[in-house]
Amino acid sequence: MRRIAESTVRRLSLYLSFLEEIEARGVPTTSSEDLARLGGTTSAQVRKDLSFFGSFGKRGLGYSVPELSARLRRILGLGRQWRVCIIGAGKIGAALARYAGFTERGFIVSAVYDSDPSKIGSRWGNVKVRDEASLERDIEAGDYQIAVLAVPADSAQNLADRVVRAGIKGILNFAPVQLTVPNDVALRAVNMAMELEALTFAITNKVD
Amino acid sequence: MRRIAESTVRRLSLYLSFLEEIEARGVPTTSSEDLARLGGTTSAQVRKDLSFFGSFGKRGLGYSVPELSARLRRILGLGRQWRVCIIGAGKIGAALARYAGFTERGFIVSAVYDSDPSKIGSRWGNVKVRDEASLERDIEAGDYQIAVLAVPADSAQNLADRVVRAGIKGILNFAPVQLTVPNDVALRAVNMAMELEALTFAITNKVD
DNA sequence: CTACCTTTGTGAACTAATTCACAAGCTCCC
DNA sequence: GGGAGCTTGTGAATTAGTTCACAAAGGTAG
């Protein structure tokens, strides 16, 4: 498949969330114009984004909401269950472990890993805190495809290396460092400092 | 000033974090090549990014680390203190309130707002939980320039409207909805579902 | 002072992403 | 069945972003 732009993928994800919303309200069809309005883009952009993957609409009529959302779910790889582990049982790890959003989207979080013996063995809702030492074994056993890194900056690269060696397929990094992984491993980062700095840049250099 | 691409701002932020790291190690100068290697980009990109704001290096020699990092801080708007409030004292709000990263970067978080009477009045470290009803009054009094939204999806737009009306300058949104704000208000969003879907897309449609 | 080495800053070339604009296709209605 | 009215899908045009490539400038050594 032709390489798809990152911005396209983000928008597909956005369209899917709109589709799920209007599907829940029972609306049967929608148009590129509707999706564009909701997503703050243009109808041509919506159609172009979809066109990379096929042709899902009916001319003159628009898109079937259930059909398009099913197609987008499949395109985004949501047609299966993904098992996720969280690494790091600190503030962020705890918030993530308790966050319902994962489950709602079909991601199964069953364990948090930490090296602190006082935390290992406890339970947070459905989530167990396990010993970081068993991380490799569990990944190799196929327990997880995705790891969420919620550890301090200085141990993030080391843990990334470990989960990569154990065969993880994707990493979502919350530590404020730039990680290096082989390019057959998917990597995304959420960096609060970067987001805040983008805000202060925009406020400071306002164009208006 | 000419419009600066979002990708450029993200990279500036990244360069700054590298500069702070090498500054702490006492390294006096660096080059576009060094910064490129750390940031996974090219030296031409680094120089182009900086060139939008001026000319900070010495040919043949590179950049003075303290000077360049000071310049970047100023460009990113970090030359002043920013007061931030967190809205929503749930899981994510709590994690954010306790997160040290804000303070390290010069952002002052002094309060979390919520409407739940059982939470109002308590203290989490240095952070007070205040009544959401007083949000407008406090923003109008100039207590905050930036609001972090950590509320459920269905109340996020309403709260965004309220803080905008009260005169907030920037919003960092953690709720999984697309917010609409006037374009003189800076807006960024952290959307976990979107990040995870970008991962599953990449894993599912692997090119290699 | 000169020759040589290094690294910046920046137009020009290129590549990627977005927007335009319109033919093609579907529906409805007379 | 044919015309009117929509909305898609997509090449072409445009705009944005990145990379190239090199002159200019600073440093150093002889």
Describe, in plain words, how this protein is organized in 3D.
Two copies of one chain form a homodimer. With 208 residues, chain A is α/β, with parallel strands linked by helices. Chain A folds into two domains: 6-75, Arc Repressor Mutant, subunit A; 82-194, NAD(P)-binding Rossmann-like Domain (Rossmann fold, 3-Layer(aba) Sandwich), CATH 3.40.50. The first copy, chain A, has nine helices and nine strands. In chain A, β7 (146-149), α8 (153-165) and β8 form a beta-alpha-beta unit. The longest helix of chain A is centred in the first third of the chain and has 19 residues, at 6-24. The first copy, chain A, is globular, with a radius of gyration of 20 Å. The N and C termini of chain A lie far apart (40 Å). The mean pLDDT of chain A is 95. The interface between A and B is large, with 63 and 63 residues. Chain A binds a DNA duplex (30 and 30 nucleotides) through residues 5, 7-8, 31-33, 41-45, 47-48, 50-51, 55-63.
